[in-house]
Amino acid sequence: MSKGLRARRASGGDMEKERETLQAWKERVGQELDRVVAFWMEHSHDQEHGGFFTCLDREGRVYDDLKYVWLQGRQVWMYCRLYRTFQRFHHSQLLNAAKAGGEFLLRYARLAPPGKKCAFVLTRDGRPVKVQRTIFSECFYTMAMNELWRATGEVRYQTEAVEMMDQIVHWVREDASGLGRPQLQGAPTAEPMAVPMMLLNLVEQLGEADEELAGKYTELGDWCARRILQHVQRDGQAVLENVSEDGKELSGCLGRQQNPGHALEAGWFLLRHCIRKGDPELRAHVLDKFLLLPFRSGWDPDHGGLFYFQDADDFCPTQLEWAMKLWWPHSEAMIAFLMGYSESGDPVLLRLFYQVAEYTFRQFRDPEYGEWFGYLSREGKVALSIKGGPFKGCFHVPRCLAMCEEMLGAL
Amino acid sequence: MSKGLRARRASGGDMEKERETLQAWKERVGQELDRVVAFWMEHSHDQEHGGFFTCLDREGRVYDDLKYVWLQGRQVWMYCRLYRTFQRFHHSQLLNAAKAGGEFLLRYARLAPPGKKCAFVLTRDGRPVKVQRTIFSECFYTMAMNELWRATGEVRYQTEAVEMMDQIVHWVREDASGLGRPQLQGAPTAEPMAVPMMLLNLVEQLGEADEELAGKYTELGDWCARRILQHVQRDGQAVLENVSEDGKELSGCLGRQQNPGHALEAGWFLLRHCIRKGDPELRAHVLDKFLLLPFRSGWDPDHGGLFYFQDADDFCPTQLEWAMKLWWPHSEAMIAFLMGYSESGDPVLLRLFYQVAEYTFRQFRDPEYGEWFGYLSREGKVALSIKGGPFKGCFHVPRCLAMCEEMLGAL
After folding, report:
1. Which chain A positions have a beta carbon within 8 Å of B383's beta carbon?
2. How does B152-183 read in b/e, with b if 16+ C-beta sit within 10 Å?
3. What is the CATH topology of the domain spanning A21-180+187-410?
4. Which of A20, A146, B167, B263 has the fewest other C-beta atoms within 10 Å?
C-alpha cells in the first residue's frame, strides 16, 4: 500500500476505529464460514456413492439426488482449500469427503474415457444425464484435481489436472470442434467473458506456489487478461458479457448483455493477475472498469443489491430473472471490493465492501438453518427457499467468507 | 348442452342477466383483439426480408431483429386464421404479411433442405443461429403452411405441411435420431406433455374440414390423447409435465414438475378431441383433471394468477421464475374454462372463466401501447416491460381473444 494512502487512512486518527470495524467483520465472517461449512458437511455427503447432494431445501433435505459436475468439482476444491489453509478445518472428515468426491469424478465425470469431455449432470450412481458443449465441467474438474493433489500429495490427481488443462486450452485456443457445437452460418463468433475468466482462474490455481506450471502458463494468463479486457466497450463505459473474438460489440441483446456480478468477479481475477505481474497501471484500470463501473450501473438504487442482468442500452432484458438478486454476485462483490481495498488502500473501496456486505448478510443469510438463500426478488424477498440446486452448491459463499476472513486478518 | 344443465343455467331467471354479462365480455374481448392485432401489424412486419420482428419493447420498438421460427410460424398461422374466420380481418394487408412470413419460412427455416429439420432462431435475413433438438419449430412451420393453404388455396403450402407432418410423426413415433439428441445412459426416457399436446393440436389443425386427413390422423389423435392422459398421476391428484413413456412417474424434480397453465392448455386440446369423438365420459374426466385440478393447485391464493411451475410434493421449484405470472397460462385458462362451459353448461366453469379473465385483463393489458405484458412478478407487478421476445409473439393473446369472441358469440 502506498505511503500516501496509508496516511489518508490514518488521517483524523480514525485508524483505530477502522481497525475495530475490520476486526468485527473478521469475526462475523469467520463465524458465518463455520455455519456454512457445517451445513454442507451435515446434509450434502453421499456416504454410499461418494460425491455430494447439492439439491438441498431450506432445512437441508435432499429434494433431488442428481449430481451436477460443476458443483461436485467446486465442493471438492472448496473442502481441500479449507483443509489446506485453515487450521480449524484441517481435519480428516473434510479431507475424506473431498477424496470421495474426487474419486466419484475420476470414475464417472468423463463421458467416454480416455476422452476428456465431461458430463454436466450425473445420476446419483454416476450415469451421465446431460452434457454441455462448453468447457466448464472440465474446468471445475481440473480445479478439484489440482487441490486434491495439494491436499493429499497424490500425484495421480495432479496428472489428471494438468492433462485436463491441456485439453481445455486446446478446445479454447486451437480447435473447439471436440465440444460438439454445430457450426451455424448465422451464429456470431461470440466470446462469453466466462471463458477467459475461467481460464485465468485455472492459471492462478495451477501456478500457485508452482514455478514450473506458473512459467508454463504465463503467456496463457496474459492472453486471458487481454481477452477479458476486450469486454470493456463503449469508450470504457460498459463491460459487455459477449463480444466478438476480435473485441467488437455484437448486435442485439447478446451484444448488449451485462452481468454486474460477473464483471466484479472478473475484477478480482484480474486484480490477482496484476499482483502476479506487479502492474499498478493495469490495477488502476481494473479497479475503475471492473469494480466501480459495474457497481455504479448494477446496484439497485431502490431496493439495494446487484441486478442479475442489464441491457447496455437500458432496454428491458429478456431474462425473466434479470432483476432478481442472486447470492453469488454479492459474494463476488465482497471479495472484489475487499481485495481492491487491500491492494490500493482506497477507502472508497472499503466503504463499498461494507455496503455490499451489510446488504448480503441482512438479505441472504438464514440464521435458522444455516447456509444462504440464493434467489431473492427484486425487493429482496426470498423467492426460492432452496439452499442448493443445479447451480448453487458449496462454493461461492464459503469461498467468499474464507477469502474475506483471510484478507480481513491481513489488514 | 344437456337439458338439465340448460335448466340449471336458466333457473332463478338470471338467464337474462347472464346473457348481458356474456355480451359485455364479447364486446370487451373483441375490442381487445382489434388493439392487439393493430399492435403487431404496426410494429412487427419486416418489409425488407419478410417475416416478423417479435422482440418488441413496451411501445413496439424493435430491440433485437432475430427471427424465432416458433414465432414466425405462429404469426403466419394467426394472421391466416383471422383472415379466414373474421369478416373484419379479411383484408389483403393481413394476408400479404402472412404470405411474406410463409415465404420467409419456406426459404430459410430448414437447415439443410430437402432435410426437414428447422432452425430455432434465424438472423433477420434468414441465416440459422440456433437449433433445438425438438419438434416444435417444425410443428409451428406445419401449422403456418396448413393455414396458408386454407387462406390462399395454393397447394404447395399444403404439400409442405403434410410432408413436414409425416416427418414429425416419424421422429416422435418411430425414430428420434434425426433430432440429434445424444443417447446418454443416465438420461430418463421422459415424455414431456408438450409432445403429444403439440401433435394433437396438429391433428386438429390438419383435419379441420378435411375428411381425408382427418381419417389419416384418427389413430394418431387417439394415441396423443392416451399419451396426454398418462400425465395424470398419483391416483388422479396431479398432472405431471414429464412421465416415462409407459406412463410412470419419474424421480426427482423432473418427475414432480407441474405447469398449471400447460395442463389447462392440454385440457382444451382434449376437449376438442372429445367433441370430435363425441365422448362425454372422457369430457367429464378432462374437465375434472385438466381444468379444475390444475386451477385448484395452480391459482395463487394470496395474489391471484396462475403460478408458472410447481412441485407435486410442494418442494420449492428450481426454476427461478416459478412464482411469476405469465401471460400465456392465463390466455389458455380463459379458453379452457369458456370451452368447458360451452360444452358442459356447468356454471362453475363460467365463474372460473370470469375470475381468470378479470385478473388477466386487469394485470396483463397495457391500455397505453396495446398488446399485453408477458411477465409479472408473483405480486402482479410488471417484471419485464417487453411486449414480445424470444418466446412471446403474435399468438397466445390473439388466439385467446379470437376463440373467446367466437365462443361468447355462440353462447
Report:
1. 320, 323, 378
2. beeeebbebbbebbebbbebbeeeeeeeeeee
3. Glycosyltransferase (1.50.10)
4. A20
Please name the residue of chain B whose CA is at the shortest distance from the CA of residue A326.
B320
Cell triple for B320: 427461478
Mutate: best of B118, B137, B318, partner A, most A CBs <10 A: B318
Local structure of residue A109 (DSSP, 8 states): T
Give Cα separations from A355 to A334, A338, A375 (angstroms). Answer: 9, 11, 19
Q: Where in chain B are the domains?
A: 21-180+187-410
Nearest one of A277, A301, A294, A165 to A226, comparing CA atoms: A277
| Closest CB from B129, B184, B320 relative to A384 | B320
Q: Which of residues 122-151 of A touch B (CB under 8 A)?
A: 122-123, 126-131
Residues 157-186 of A with CB under 8 A from B: 182, 184-186
**CA dist., res. B337 & res. B12, Å (int):** 23
- Tell me if B378 and A375 make a contact (CB, 8 A cut-off): no
- Enumerate the residues of chain B whose CB falls inside 8 A of the CB of residue A323: 383
The three cell numbers of residue A6 are 496509508
B55 contacts chain A (CB < 8 A): yes
Least CB–CB distance from B127: residue in A185, A317, A321: A185
pLDDT, tens digit only, all 411 positions of chain A: 444 455 455 555 688 999 999 999 999 999 999 999 999 999 999 999 999 999 999 999 999 999 999 999 999 999 999 999 999 999 999 999 999 999 999 999 999 999 999 999 999 999 999 999 999 999 999 999 999 999 999 999 999 999 999 999 999 999 999 998 888 999 988 999 999 999 999 999 999 999 999 999 999 999 999 999 999 999 999 999 999 999 999 999 999 999 999 999 999 999 999 999 999 999 999 999 999 999 999 999 999 999 999 999 999 999 999 999 999 999 999 999 999 999 999 999 999 999 999 999 999 999 999 999 999 999 999 999 999 999 999 999 999 999 999 999 999
Longest dimension (CA), chain B: 64
Do A215 and A149 contact (CB within 8 A), yes or no?
no
Residue numbers in A near B322 (CB within 8 A): 384
Peptide bond into B196 cis (omega under 30): no
Q: Residue A336 to residues A33, A330, B31, B382: CA-CA distances in angstroms?
A: 18, 10, 54, 33
Q: With an 8 Å Cβ cutoff, are B187 and A128 in contact?
A: yes
Chain A residue nearest residue B133, CA to CA: A182
Put simply, the answer to whether A321 touches B316 (Cβ < 8 Å) is no
Nearest Cβ partner for A186 among B123, B253, B322:
B123
